[in-house]
Specification:
mainly alpha; about 200 residues; single chain; DUF4240 domain-containing protein; globular
């Protein structure tokens, strides 16, 4: 028989928690502190369900267009781990930012900061682990429920329509974001290196 931990937290509650974590948060560390504190208000099952909902949202954001956006915003090669951190950052910005970016990555122009920074938030993913340990005194029960469809080993293999380092390609995917980050309207000659497929 499946327990409550086998299902992701309902989206309304999930996004409400994320929104609350952003209140009075001045940086990622303060948002993380808020999030861990808020999660401790919930049952241990709900904390685990929060983690599963995060995994589902990470899975749904695993697209080549968002990988391109991550590369543009961070102005560097984005590895698998870097992209995971970018997707986690995207979730941490709230429901509207997340879903707008899924449908139109160029919407992330609204999230660009005036000061240079890397767009990633690895520790957001660890908040359920921290909250669970603080609430119970025991370690977080890692692992996916049986037949969970959004586990990381089930990520689709992406076919990229762009090449890392080819600004022509990247601008064709996210023109507004590219122009904002690079402050240029015209491009650099394409590189010959072939983009490797991601898993």
């Amino acid at each position: 028989m499946r327990t409550a931990r086998a299902f992701p937290l309902d989206e309304h509650t999930y996004w409400n928690i994320v929104a609350r974590s952003l209140v009075n948060a001045t940086d990622q560390q303060s948002q993380l502190v808020n999030l861990v504190s808020i999660l401790q208000e919930y049952s241990t099952d709900a904390i685990c369900q929060f983690d599963l909902r995060t995994e589902e949202l990470l899975f749904k954001a695993h697209t080549d267009n968002l990988w391109c956006a991550a590369t543009i915003m961070n102005k560097r090669f984005v590895s698998d781990d870097n992209f995971m951190n970018f997707k986690t950052w995207l979730i941490s910005r709230g429901k509207d930012v997340y879903y707008d970016a899924l449908s139109k990555p160029d919407s992330l122009t609204k999230e660009v900061k005036t000061k240079g920074e890397l767009y990633g938030f690895e520790e957001f993913r660890y908040a359920p682990e921290y909250a669970f340990k603080l609430k119970t005194g025991v370690e977080f029960p890692f692992g996916y429920p049986k037949d969970f469809p959004y586990s990381q080993n089930k990520y689709p293999q992406l076919e990229f329509a762009w090449q890392t380092g080819n600004r022509n390609d990247m601008r064709s995917i996210c023109p507004q974001l590219f122009d904002l980050m690079y402050k240029k309207k015209r491009l650099i000659a394409p590189v010959k290196k072939t983009q490797k497929k991601r898993k």
